[in-house]
Amino acid sequence: MMQESSTMSPPANMDPPASDAEVKPETLEEVKEEGPMFHCNLFDAEMVHKIGQEFLTGLASACVDNTTGGIFKSPASVALDVRREMVDYLVQRSETFVAESVVFEGDPIIEAPTDAFDIISDFIDDFAHSKRNFFSRVSGWILSDRREDRIDDFVQEMELNGFWLIGRRESVALTLLRNVDVKNTYHCSMKFRSEEELEHHLPSCSFRVVNCENEGCNAIFVAGHVDQHDSACPFKMLPCEQKCPDSIMRRDMDRHCITVCSMKLVNCPFYPVGCLSTVPQCYIADHRSENLQSHLVCILKLVHKEASLEALKKRTEVLMEEAPRGKLAAARDARALTFAIKDLEVKLGPLEEVKQSVGEETSTTNNAESCASMLADSPTTHDDIAASDESFAKDENDTEKQAGSLYTELNNIGMSPNRAEEGMEIPKSPKKHNVSGSGQ
Protein backbone atom coordinates (compact mmCIF):
# COMPACT_ATOMS: atom_id res chain seq x y z
CA MET A 1 0.00 0.00 0.00
CA MET A 2 2.83 2.31 0.85
CA GLN A 3 4.54 1.48 -2.42
CA GLU A 4 1.42 2.23 -4.45
CA SER A 5 0.93 5.58 -2.97
CA SER A 6 4.52 6.53 -3.54
CA THR A 7 4.41 5.64 -7.19
CA MET A 8 1.19 7.52 -7.82
CA SER A 9 2.26 10.81 -6.25
CA PRO A 10 3.73 13.10 -8.95
CA PRO A 11 6.79 15.21 -8.28
CA ALA A 12 6.17 18.59 -6.65
CA ASN A 13 7.72 20.66 -9.49
CA MET A 14 7.83 19.49 -13.07
CA ASP A 15 9.39 22.76 -14.46
CA PRO A 16 12.88 22.59 -15.88
CA PRO A 17 15.67 23.76 -13.63
CA ALA A 18 16.23 27.50 -13.52
CA SER A 19 19.12 29.08 -15.40
CA ASP A 20 22.17 30.50 -13.69
CA ALA A 21 20.98 34.03 -14.32
CA GLU A 22 17.75 33.48 -12.45
CA VAL A 23 19.34 31.94 -9.37
CA LYS A 24 22.14 34.55 -9.17
CA PRO A 25 22.09 35.99 -5.64
CA GLU A 26 21.64 39.75 -5.16
CA THR A 27 24.84 41.64 -4.47
CA LEU A 28 25.38 43.76 -1.38
CA GLU A 29 25.30 46.99 -3.45
CA GLU A 30 21.87 46.14 -4.87
CA VAL A 31 20.57 45.52 -1.38
CA LYS A 32 21.95 48.90 -0.24
CA GLU A 33 20.30 50.73 -3.16
CA GLU A 34 16.93 49.43 -2.04
CA GLY A 35 17.59 50.70 1.48
CA PRO A 36 17.22 54.28 2.76
CA MET A 37 19.15 56.93 0.80
CA PHE A 38 20.72 60.11 2.17
CA HIS A 39 19.69 63.22 0.22
CA CYS A 40 21.57 66.48 -0.07
CA ASN A 41 18.97 69.05 0.92
CA LEU A 42 20.94 72.15 0.00
CA PHE A 43 19.24 74.74 -2.20
CA ASP A 44 19.48 78.33 -3.39
CA ALA A 45 18.02 80.23 -0.44
CA GLU A 46 17.94 83.48 -2.40
CA MET A 47 15.69 81.98 -5.06
CA VAL A 48 13.42 80.37 -2.45
CA HIS A 49 13.03 83.75 -0.73
CA LYS A 50 12.24 85.39 -4.07
CA ILE A 51 9.50 82.85 -4.79
CA GLY A 52 8.10 83.34 -1.28
CA GLN A 53 7.76 87.06 -1.97
CA GLU A 54 5.77 86.29 -5.11
CA PHE A 55 3.28 84.26 -3.06
CA LEU A 56 2.12 87.32 -1.14
CA THR A 57 1.54 89.36 -4.30
CA GLY A 58 -0.33 86.47 -5.93
CA LEU A 59 -2.51 85.97 -2.87
CA ALA A 60 -3.36 89.67 -2.72
CA SER A 61 -4.28 89.68 -6.42
CA ALA A 62 -6.56 86.66 -5.99
CA CYS A 63 -8.32 88.15 -2.94
CA VAL A 64 -8.84 91.56 -4.54
CA ASP A 65 -10.15 90.13 -7.81
CA ASN A 66 -12.43 87.71 -5.96
CA THR A 67 -14.13 90.46 -3.96
CA THR A 68 -14.24 93.26 -6.55
CA GLY A 69 -17.70 94.83 -6.58
CA GLY A 70 -18.80 92.88 -3.51
CA ILE A 71 -20.66 94.63 -0.72
CA PHE A 72 -20.33 92.10 2.08
CA LYS A 73 -16.86 90.71 1.29
CA SER A 74 -13.42 92.23 1.60
CA PRO A 75 -10.01 90.84 0.60
CA ALA A 76 -9.17 90.17 4.25
CA SER A 77 -12.36 88.15 4.81
CA VAL A 78 -11.49 85.60 2.11
CA ALA A 79 -7.70 85.57 2.52
CA LEU A 80 -7.58 82.46 4.72
CA ASP A 81 -9.64 80.29 2.38
CA VAL A 82 -7.92 81.62 -0.73
CA ARG A 83 -4.50 80.91 0.77
CA ARG A 84 -5.43 77.28 1.42
CA GLU A 85 -6.72 76.87 -2.12
CA MET A 86 -3.64 78.57 -3.51
CA VAL A 87 -1.19 76.24 -1.74
CA ASP A 88 -3.11 73.14 -2.85
CA TYR A 89 -3.28 74.41 -6.42
CA LEU A 90 0.43 75.24 -6.63
CA VAL A 91 1.56 71.92 -5.15
CA GLN A 92 -0.69 69.98 -7.52
CA ARG A 93 0.51 71.94 -10.55
CA SER A 94 4.15 71.45 -9.58
CA GLU A 95 3.67 67.70 -9.18
CA THR A 96 2.15 67.36 -12.64
CA PHE A 97 4.55 69.80 -14.27
CA VAL A 98 6.95 67.15 -15.56
CA ALA A 99 4.12 65.17 -17.15
CA GLU A 100 2.66 68.33 -18.72
CA SER A 101 6.03 69.35 -20.12
CA VAL A 102 6.44 65.93 -21.74
CA VAL A 103 2.97 66.13 -23.32
CA PHE A 104 3.49 69.61 -24.75
CA GLU A 105 7.12 69.06 -25.73
CA GLY A 106 7.69 70.00 -29.35
CA ASP A 107 4.43 71.93 -29.66
CA PRO A 108 5.28 75.12 -31.62
CA ILE A 109 2.22 76.95 -30.23
CA ILE A 110 2.86 76.42 -26.53
CA GLU A 111 6.20 77.80 -25.38
CA ALA A 112 6.69 76.65 -21.81
CA PRO A 113 9.22 78.53 -19.66
CA THR A 114 12.32 76.64 -18.60
CA ASP A 115 13.41 78.65 -15.56
CA ALA A 116 11.96 77.46 -12.25
CA PHE A 117 11.05 80.96 -11.08
CA ASP A 118 9.18 81.71 -14.32
CA ILE A 119 7.34 78.40 -14.10
CA ILE A 120 6.12 79.02 -10.55
CA SER A 121 5.23 82.64 -11.41
CA ASP A 122 2.99 81.31 -14.19
CA PHE A 123 1.31 78.96 -11.69
CA ILE A 124 0.61 81.91 -9.38
CA ASP A 125 -0.78 84.04 -12.21
CA ASP A 126 -3.03 81.19 -13.36
CA PHE A 127 -4.45 80.76 -9.87
CA ALA A 128 -5.05 84.49 -9.40
CA HIS A 129 -6.79 84.65 -12.77
CA SER A 130 -9.03 81.72 -11.83
CA LYS A 131 -10.28 83.59 -8.73
CA ARG A 132 -11.59 86.59 -10.64
CA ASN A 133 -15.32 87.09 -10.31
CA PHE A 134 -17.61 88.25 -13.08
CA PHE A 135 -17.40 91.91 -12.13
CA SER A 136 -13.58 91.95 -12.10
CA ARG A 137 -13.46 90.20 -15.48
CA VAL A 138 -15.72 92.78 -17.07
CA SER A 139 -14.35 95.92 -15.42
CA GLY A 140 -10.74 94.90 -15.01
CA TRP A 141 -9.51 96.94 -17.93
CA ILE A 142 -11.38 100.03 -16.63
CA LEU A 143 -10.19 99.84 -13.03
CA SER A 144 -6.67 98.63 -13.74
CA ASP A 145 -4.95 101.51 -11.92
CA ARG A 146 -7.29 101.24 -8.97
CA ARG A 147 -6.78 97.47 -8.91
CA GLU A 148 -3.01 97.78 -8.66
CA ASP A 149 -3.35 100.24 -5.78
CA ARG A 150 -5.68 97.91 -3.88
CA ILE A 151 -3.32 94.97 -4.39
CA ASP A 152 -0.33 96.94 -3.09
CA ASP A 153 -2.32 98.13 -0.07
CA PHE A 154 -3.44 94.60 0.79
CA VAL A 155 0.12 93.25 0.48
CA GLN A 156 1.29 95.85 3.00
CA GLU A 157 -1.62 95.02 5.30
CA MET A 158 -0.75 91.30 5.32
CA GLU A 159 2.92 92.03 5.98
CA LEU A 160 2.10 94.32 8.90
CA ASN A 161 -0.32 91.83 10.44
CA GLY A 162 1.98 88.84 9.87
CA PHE A 163 -0.78 86.96 8.07
CA TRP A 164 1.56 84.65 6.10
CA LEU A 165 5.04 84.65 7.58
CA ILE A 166 8.01 84.45 5.24
CA GLY A 167 9.26 81.22 6.83
CA ARG A 168 6.08 79.35 5.98
CA ARG A 169 6.02 80.80 2.50
CA GLU A 170 9.61 79.67 1.91
CA SER A 171 8.71 76.14 3.05
CA VAL A 172 6.05 75.92 0.34
CA ALA A 173 8.38 77.58 -2.17
CA LEU A 174 11.08 74.96 -1.54
CA THR A 175 8.62 72.14 -2.22
CA LEU A 176 7.56 73.72 -5.50
CA LEU A 177 11.15 74.44 -6.49
CA ARG A 178 12.22 70.82 -6.08
CA ASN A 179 9.26 69.66 -8.15
CA VAL A 180 9.82 71.96 -11.15
CA ASP A 181 13.61 72.48 -11.11
CA VAL A 182 14.33 69.49 -13.34
CA LYS A 183 17.71 70.91 -14.37
CA ASN A 184 18.86 71.23 -10.75
CA THR A 185 19.64 74.89 -11.27
CA TYR A 186 18.50 75.96 -7.80
CA HIS A 187 18.77 72.84 -5.65
CA CYS A 188 20.98 69.77 -5.23
CA SER A 189 19.34 66.44 -6.01
CA MET A 190 22.24 64.12 -5.25
CA LYS A 191 21.66 60.99 -3.15
CA PHE A 192 24.16 58.94 -1.18
CA ARG A 193 24.17 55.45 0.28
CA SER A 194 25.78 56.44 3.55
CA GLU A 195 25.90 59.39 5.84
CA GLU A 196 29.69 59.51 5.50
CA GLU A 197 29.41 60.05 1.74
CA LEU A 198 26.90 62.85 2.31
CA GLU A 199 29.21 64.56 4.80
CA HIS A 200 32.06 64.28 2.33
CA HIS A 201 29.89 65.91 -0.36
CA LEU A 202 28.57 68.88 1.64
CA PRO A 203 31.83 70.93 1.80
CA SER A 204 32.07 70.83 -2.00
CA CYS A 205 28.38 71.16 -2.91
CA SER A 206 27.72 74.11 -5.19
CA PHE A 207 24.63 75.00 -3.13
CA ARG A 208 26.42 75.39 0.20
CA VAL A 209 26.07 78.82 1.74
CA VAL A 210 29.17 81.05 1.66
CA ASN A 211 29.99 84.61 2.68
CA CYS A 212 31.57 87.20 0.45
CA GLU A 213 35.31 87.45 1.07
CA ASN A 214 35.57 91.14 0.17
CA GLU A 215 36.17 93.33 3.19
CA GLY A 216 33.04 95.23 4.19
CA CYS A 217 30.58 93.03 2.25
CA ASN A 218 28.10 90.99 4.29
CA ALA A 219 26.40 89.23 1.38
CA ILE A 220 25.48 85.55 1.75
CA PHE A 221 24.88 83.34 -1.30
CA VAL A 222 25.38 79.81 -2.60
CA ALA A 223 28.84 78.78 -3.72
CA GLY A 224 27.70 78.42 -7.32
CA HIS A 225 27.04 82.16 -7.48
CA VAL A 226 30.48 83.28 -6.33
CA ASP A 227 31.55 84.49 -9.76
CA GLN A 228 28.22 86.21 -10.36
CA HIS A 229 28.45 88.10 -7.07
CA ASP A 230 32.11 88.86 -7.50
CA SER A 231 31.44 90.54 -10.84
CA ALA A 232 29.07 93.02 -9.17
CA CYS A 233 30.21 93.24 -5.54
CA PRO A 234 30.56 96.94 -4.63
CA PHE A 235 33.31 96.18 -2.10
CA LYS A 236 35.65 94.34 -4.47
CA MET A 237 39.04 96.00 -4.88
CA LEU A 238 39.85 96.75 -8.52
CA PRO A 239 42.77 98.38 -10.34
CA CYS A 240 42.08 101.94 -11.38
CA GLU A 241 40.22 102.19 -14.70
CA GLN A 242 42.51 105.06 -15.72
CA LYS A 243 45.64 102.95 -15.12
CA CYS A 244 46.90 104.77 -12.04
CA PRO A 245 48.78 102.58 -9.50
CA ASP A 246 45.95 102.65 -6.91
CA SER A 247 43.42 99.88 -6.21
CA ILE A 248 39.91 101.16 -5.52
CA MET A 249 36.61 99.63 -4.38
CA ARG A 250 34.16 99.19 -7.22
CA ARG A 251 31.64 101.50 -5.54
CA ASP A 252 34.25 104.30 -5.24
CA MET A 253 35.72 103.96 -8.72
CA ASP A 254 33.75 106.75 -10.42
CA ARG A 255 34.43 109.24 -7.64
CA HIS A 256 38.14 108.36 -7.64
CA CYS A 257 38.48 108.80 -11.40
CA ILE A 258 36.99 112.30 -11.42
CA THR A 259 38.63 113.64 -8.25
CA VAL A 260 41.94 112.36 -6.87
CA CYS A 261 43.16 109.98 -9.59
CA SER A 262 46.67 110.93 -10.69
CA MET A 263 45.79 109.92 -14.26
CA LYS A 264 42.74 112.17 -14.46
CA LEU A 265 42.77 114.24 -17.64
CA VAL A 266 43.00 117.98 -16.92
CA ASN A 267 43.45 121.12 -18.97
CA CYS A 268 46.91 122.61 -19.22
CA PRO A 269 47.49 125.38 -16.61
CA PHE A 270 48.11 127.69 -19.59
CA TYR A 271 44.68 126.96 -21.08
CA PRO A 272 43.47 130.55 -20.37
CA VAL A 273 46.23 131.97 -22.58
CA GLY A 274 45.79 129.56 -25.49
CA CYS A 275 47.25 126.09 -24.74
CA LEU A 276 44.44 123.63 -25.51
CA SER A 277 46.24 120.43 -24.46
CA THR A 278 44.66 117.96 -22.02
CA VAL A 279 47.15 115.79 -20.13
CA PRO A 280 47.04 113.35 -17.20
CA GLN A 281 47.29 115.16 -13.88
CA CYS A 282 50.55 113.48 -12.93
CA TYR A 283 52.26 114.60 -16.17
CA ILE A 284 51.53 118.33 -15.83
CA ALA A 285 55.12 119.14 -14.81
CA ASP A 286 56.52 117.25 -17.81
CA HIS A 287 54.07 119.01 -20.11
CA ARG A 288 55.10 122.45 -18.80
CA SER A 289 58.76 121.67 -19.29
CA GLU A 290 58.36 120.20 -22.79
CA ASN A 291 56.09 123.00 -24.03
CA LEU A 292 57.76 125.99 -22.35
CA GLN A 293 58.51 127.74 -25.64
CA SER A 294 54.91 127.51 -26.89
CA HIS A 295 53.65 128.76 -23.52
CA LEU A 296 56.01 131.75 -23.74
CA VAL A 297 54.69 132.59 -27.20
CA CYS A 298 51.09 132.42 -25.89
CA ILE A 299 51.85 134.94 -23.14
CA LEU A 300 53.93 137.25 -25.36
CA LYS A 301 51.00 137.44 -27.77
CA LEU A 302 48.97 139.03 -24.99
CA VAL A 303 51.76 141.34 -23.82
CA HIS A 304 52.79 142.49 -27.32
CA LYS A 305 49.52 142.33 -29.23
CA GLU A 306 50.78 144.08 -32.37
CA ALA A 307 54.04 142.17 -32.71
CA SER A 308 54.52 139.65 -35.50
CA LEU A 309 54.84 135.94 -34.84
CA GLU A 310 58.46 135.94 -35.99
CA ALA A 311 59.30 138.71 -33.53
CA LEU A 312 57.60 136.81 -30.71
CA LYS A 313 59.52 133.63 -31.50
CA LYS A 314 62.79 135.58 -31.57
CA ARG A 315 61.91 137.17 -28.24
CA THR A 316 61.13 133.75 -26.81
CA GLU A 317 64.57 132.46 -27.73
CA VAL A 318 66.20 135.48 -26.12
CA LEU A 319 64.16 135.03 -22.94
CA MET A 320 65.11 131.37 -22.65
CA GLU A 321 68.79 132.25 -23.10
CA GLU A 322 68.81 135.15 -20.64
CA ALA A 323 66.64 133.60 -17.92
CA PRO A 324 68.34 131.88 -14.98
CA ARG A 325 68.33 128.12 -15.29
CA GLY A 326 64.89 126.70 -14.44
CA LYS A 327 63.27 130.04 -13.61
CA LEU A 328 60.79 129.98 -16.48
CA ALA A 329 60.14 126.24 -16.26
CA ALA A 330 59.32 126.61 -12.55
CA ALA A 331 56.29 128.80 -13.33
CA ARG A 332 53.21 126.68 -12.58
CA ASP A 333 50.62 128.80 -14.37
CA ALA A 334 50.16 131.72 -16.73
CA ARG A 335 50.23 134.33 -13.95
CA ALA A 336 53.58 133.19 -12.58
CA LEU A 337 55.13 132.95 -16.05
CA THR A 338 53.86 136.44 -16.96
CA PHE A 339 55.61 137.98 -13.95
CA ALA A 340 58.82 136.12 -14.80
CA ILE A 341 58.69 137.42 -18.39
CA LYS A 342 58.12 141.03 -17.32
CA ASP A 343 61.12 140.91 -14.97
CA LEU A 344 63.31 139.75 -17.83
CA GLU A 345 61.92 142.25 -20.34
CA VAL A 346 62.91 145.12 -18.06
CA LYS A 347 66.52 144.07 -18.60
CA LEU A 348 66.14 143.24 -22.30
CA GLY A 349 64.41 146.45 -23.31
CA PRO A 350 61.61 146.95 -25.84
CA LEU A 351 60.67 144.31 -28.36
CA GLU A 352 62.39 144.72 -31.74
CA GLU A 353 60.55 143.81 -34.88
CA VAL A 354 62.27 141.27 -37.09
CA LYS A 355 63.55 142.90 -40.26
CA GLN A 356 62.13 141.89 -43.56
CA SER A 357 63.99 139.29 -45.46
CA VAL A 358 65.59 139.98 -48.85
CA GLY A 359 62.68 138.38 -50.65
CA GLU A 360 60.17 140.55 -48.80
CA GLU A 361 62.18 143.75 -49.57
CA THR A 362 62.33 142.82 -53.27
CA SER A 363 58.60 142.22 -53.29
CA THR A 364 57.94 145.65 -51.73
CA THR A 365 60.20 147.39 -54.28
CA ASN A 366 58.53 145.64 -57.17
CA ASN A 367 55.11 146.69 -55.89
CA ALA A 368 56.22 150.36 -55.69
CA GLU A 369 57.67 150.29 -59.20
CA SER A 370 54.50 148.69 -60.50
CA CYS A 371 52.37 151.45 -58.97
CA ALA A 372 54.61 154.17 -60.49
CA SER A 373 54.42 152.51 -63.90
CA MET A 374 50.64 152.40 -63.73
CA LEU A 375 50.53 156.13 -62.91
CA ALA A 376 52.86 156.99 -65.80
CA ASP A 377 50.91 154.88 -68.30
CA SER A 378 47.48 156.15 -67.31
CA PRO A 379 46.20 159.08 -69.52
CA THR A 380 45.62 162.43 -67.80
CA THR A 381 42.73 164.64 -68.82
CA HIS A 382 42.11 168.39 -68.32
CA ASP A 383 39.48 167.57 -65.69
CA ASP A 384 42.03 165.54 -63.70
CA ILE A 385 44.52 168.43 -63.81
CA ALA A 386 41.90 170.95 -62.71
CA ALA A 387 40.81 168.73 -59.83
CA SER A 388 44.43 168.31 -58.78
CA ASP A 389 45.01 172.10 -58.81
CA GLU A 390 41.93 172.68 -56.68
CA SER A 391 43.10 170.04 -54.19
CA PHE A 392 46.56 171.60 -53.86
CA ALA A 393 45.04 175.07 -53.40
CA LYS A 394 42.78 173.77 -50.68
CA ASP A 395 45.70 172.09 -48.89
CA GLU A 396 47.70 175.36 -49.09
CA ASN A 397 44.85 177.38 -47.57
CA ASP A 398 44.42 174.83 -44.76
CA THR A 399 48.14 174.98 -43.98
CA GLU A 400 48.13 178.76 -43.84
CA LYS A 401 45.16 178.68 -41.50
CA GLN A 402 46.95 176.21 -39.20
CA ALA A 403 50.05 178.43 -39.14
CA GLY A 404 47.96 181.50 -38.29
CA SER A 405 46.26 179.67 -35.46
CA LEU A 406 49.61 178.51 -34.12
CA TYR A 407 51.03 182.08 -34.11
CA THR A 408 47.91 183.31 -32.30
CA GLU A 409 48.30 180.70 -29.58
CA LEU A 410 51.97 181.58 -29.11
CA ASN A 411 51.10 185.27 -28.69
CA ASN A 412 48.44 184.38 -26.13
CA ILE A 413 50.94 182.52 -23.93
CA GLY A 414 53.55 185.28 -24.22
CA MET A 415 55.94 183.59 -26.62
CA SER A 416 57.06 185.42 -29.72
CA PRO A 417 56.75 183.65 -33.04
CA ASN A 418 60.46 184.11 -33.71
CA ARG A 419 61.31 182.38 -30.45
CA ALA A 420 58.88 179.61 -31.26
CA GLU A 421 60.55 179.07 -34.61
CA GLU A 422 63.77 178.30 -32.77
CA GLY A 423 62.20 175.40 -30.84
CA MET A 424 59.61 174.03 -33.22
CA GLU A 425 59.04 173.64 -36.88
CA ILE A 426 56.23 175.65 -38.45
CA PRO A 427 54.33 173.63 -41.03
CA LYS A 428 55.00 174.78 -44.54
CA SER A 429 52.57 174.76 -47.37
CA PRO A 430 53.04 171.89 -49.75
CA LYS A 431 54.56 172.63 -53.09
CA LYS A 432 52.30 172.61 -56.06
CA HIS A 433 53.08 169.70 -58.40
CA ASN A 434 53.14 170.30 -62.10
CA VAL A 435 51.34 167.55 -63.92
CA SER A 436 52.26 167.35 -67.55
CA GLY A 437 49.53 166.18 -69.81
CA SER A 438 48.64 166.12 -73.40
CA GLY A 439 46.04 168.84 -72.98
CA GLN A 440 48.32 171.43 -71.15
From TrEMBL:
Residues 1-28, 389-440 are annotated as: Disordered. This is TRAF-type domain-containing protein. InterPro entries: Znf_RING/FYVE/PHD, Znf_TRAF. A zinc finger (TRAF-type) spans 229-280. Residues 1-10 have a biased composition (Polar residues). SUPFAM superfamilies: TRAF domain-like (SSF49599). Keywords: Metal-binding, Zinc, Zinc-finger.
